[in-house]
């Protein structure tokens, strides 16, 4: 019986990995974007459902972790597989920022950023693009819909995915490794 359970667990794991590979292929992340190189990509699963694929880009000569730790240029792209209500996205982001205690003094800028969100549809692509000295851009399907020169906002908001106690430790580890 134990061997059967182990066999089933392995089969489920292999199937999930193949599914993630298929999903990443579907997301179609290019190897380079706007002078940055693809470092890592992963799929966020929640309650056995694929929610989005995430890709993290940084300078070619840095690892993803070095770029994050040294506050260098980063681009996080999310390709959504499901429809998600705008209110649910804002609620999850706000709860994460509060848990991370990252929103101190940033509430007006966070509110401005959240005001630019819309209901997400399957196939939408959101990107957070941070460049030191320029700040943060939010892009929805290739269009810049929000900009802020506040590097602290960029650090806090990217931290939803890349800092400890974010949305998913597993996703964070995959993106930063």
TrEMBL record:
Q: Which InterPro entries match?
A: Chalcone_isomerase (IPR016087), Chalcone_isomerase_3-sand (IPR016088)
Q: Which domain of life is it from?
A: Bacteria
One Pfam family cited in the UniProt record for this chain: Chalcone_3
Q: Where is the Chalcone isomerase domain?
A: 34-176
Which molecular function terms from Gene Ontology are attached?
isomerase activity
**Keywords recorded for this protein, A-Z:** Isomerase, Signal
Q: Which residues form a coiled coil?
A: none
* Signal peptide as annotated in the record: 1-18
The name of this protein is Chalcone isomerase family protein
